[in-house]
Amino acid sequence: MLTLHGSGVGSGIAIGEAVVLDRDRPEIPEYLVPAEQIEAEVSRFQAAIERAGAELAAVRDSIPSTVPSETATFIDAHILMLQDPVLAEEPLATIRERRCNAEWALTARCQALVEVFDAMEDPYLRSKKNDVEQVVNRIYNELLNTHGQDHDILSRDLSGKIVITNDLTPADAVLLQHHHMRAFVTNLGGPISHTAILARSLRVPAVVGLHGAIRYIRHGEPLVVDASNGIIIVSPDSAVLREYEQRQREEDRLRERLHSLIGLAASTRDGTAVTLSANIELPGDIEAAVKVGANGVGLYRTEYLFMNRSEPPGEEEQYSAYTTVVTRLQRPVTIRTLDLGADKQVDGGRSGGNIATNPALGLRAVRLCLSDPGLFRPQLRAILRASAHGPAAIMIPMVSSLDELDQVLEMIRETKTALRHEGYVFDPAIPVGGMIEVPAAAIAADLFATKLDFLSIGTNDLIQYTLAIDRVDDEVNYLYDPLHPSVLRLICSVIKAGCEAGIPVSMCGEMAGDARYTRLLLGLGLRSFSMDPTVLLEVKNTIRHSHLGELEEQTREILTRSDSGRIRELLDRLNSH
Ligand code: PEP
Ligand code: MG
Fold first, then answer.
1. Average pLDDT, the chain
2. Which of 59, 135, 259, 268 has the greatest CB tally within 10 Å of its CB?
3. pLDDT tens, residue by residue, 194-219
4. Nearest to residue 139, comparing CAs of 215, 223, 55?
């Protein structure tokens, strides 16, 4: 029996068998081939292409019906790429002319192709480079005989299994969930990464950032994943297993007790009403929000519609997805425009493609949208059209400059005019809000507030950018601190700016769904929280046991402190009664 420690994601205990995926990629060899063996090398390359094609076709044919149909389209595009002369024929000429081994020839072609994609102006077409790299990786796997070992997550039976992997992208997490994995464990990653957030909403217990520790876990080994405490137990003995089974039963009972709060008001003991909304990733998540009685959706992360597919969804597909949510809920649905970039790549970055040096500071979210109106406009049209079916709001992620915001507002105005001319119905007064998640926007929140109908504090990024801590980097995760005085001051001033401008301020980062911070945020003046539906009842429970009059003074004291130890002590005191 072995106990390993990492960062727990969400709550819950999973007991199951390990499936180890994605071991480190082997080195790509480069060597000269003797003249008499050149034709054999050519045949080796052709056979690899054939096997890669056959394997892809088999994966496509075995996709379960629960997986969105775009996944098959995505695989078909890869099959077509494998047949393209640039990949299927040109490396043969390179092998013959340069007498190099097949892998080397493939590397040379791949580099030439990647450069062509890199030079493209259209960011969407540029992102297609990742598909090329994925296909090339597949051929490498065949050449090096590493295929089927670890890399192909789509061809695995993961039902009830615990996935062990070096890293997992949000796109991978969606695919794995369709394969009914029970839990996952990764070497890399932090508890605020998008993969972690997704795991919580998928109700998949996870432990991330185990560093090299997962080297000790082998295929088929029995495991306990204790997500609440960030612990993995490898090959537990029967006493430990019994203890965890008992804890699983207790957690089920606690969940049942919290269920009794559904339908009760989210009000403090002294009668202040608080809005509790849900964060969702995919239209299907809306059922979880309805089930816990959320007041609405405070954050719909639309980028997940754009992942694991070869083409972005068109206006009609988006319209249908947004309408599903708006119609089902009939309560305010805040639809956030596309926030792709940083750790959210369309293909999950599986190919390890060319990522900007500082992706979190790069062409992400609203920046990407403004640089590509062909991507942005259909989304604005779809959201506006969905607003005809129920209360909806548009939320802009990562605003950092007022000029940028003006451009977005102008695009929304133009889109409304176009829709009106085309005879579409929409809510002409649809609220437009901005996420306050970049320090520049938090510091100047009063200026942004003059142009917007509401603000929503995205603490995940606000903390990352304020403290200069990459939210997906496990090496610096210990510094990721929602209680840092700078973070608390920024939150406080954003709430104040919204209040003075007379517009609502909500919070939709993970901090809003962590019951340890509920009283502190209430004390700072926050009255609207949006979070994963799985934690909504726990936060409601805390609100119902809180007395605003009592906690405001203690909150003021926390704001005067600079040392994190004392701040934590005061927070414990705040939470203790
Ligand atoms: C945030 O940054 O707090 C947020 C809610 O957005 P995301 O986690 O999707 O970046
Ligand atoms: Mg964010």
1. 88
2. 135
3. 788 878 877 889 999 887 767 788 88
4. 55
CA 471 to chain centroid, in Å, comes to: 12
Residue predicted with more confidence, 437 or 23: 437
Residue 194: active-site member: yes
397 Cα to the center of ligand 2, angstroms? 7
**CB of residue 378 inside a 6 A radius of ligand 1:** no
Q: Is 182 in the pocket of ligand 1 (CB under 6 A)?
A: no
Q: Given this model, what pLDDT does residue 301 score?
A: 96
Question: What one-character DSSP code corresponds to residue 84?
Answer: S
Q: How confident is the model at residue 352, as a pLDDT?
A: 46
Please tell me the distance from the alpha carbon of residue 306 to that of residue 304, in angstroms, as a whole number: 5
Q: Is 575 left (phi over 0), alpha (psi -120 to 50) or beta?
A: alpha
The residue from 78, 147, 194, 484 that is catalytic is 194
Are residues 548 and 522 in contact, defined by beta-carbon separation less than 8 angstroms?
A: yes
Sheet holding 183-186, edge to edge: 2-5, 231-234, 222-226, 13-20, 162-165, 183-186, 206-208, 7-9
Q: Cα(451)–Cα(431) distance, rounded to whole angstroms?
A: 11
Strands (E), 296-382: 297-301, 333-336
Reading phi first (left if > 0) and then psi (alpha if -120 to 50, else beta), residue 543 is in alpha
Helix/strand/coil percent split, the chain, to 5: 55, 15, 35
Q: What is the pLDDT of residues 509-555, one digit of tens each?
A: 999 999 999 999 999 999 999 999 999 999 999 999 999 998 999 99
pTM over 0.85: no
Which residue, judged by its Cα, is nearest atom 1 of ligand 1? 458
| 532 Cβ below 6 A of ligand 1 | no
**Across 163-177, 314-328, 356-370, which has the greatest mean pLDDT?**
314-328
d(Cα 536, Cα 503) in Å, to the nearest integer?
Answer: 24
Provide the pLDDT for residue 148. 46
Cα separation of 376 and 209, whole Å? 34
Half-sphere exposure of 413 (CA within 13 A, CB side): 6
Phi-psi region of 264 (alpha: psi -120 to 50; beta: other; left: phi over 0): beta
Angle of CA points 561, 565, 570, to nearest 5°? 60
Q: What is the pLDDT of residue 324?
A: 96
Q: Which amino acid is at 176?
A: L
Helix axes 373-386, 402-422, angle to 10 degrees: 60
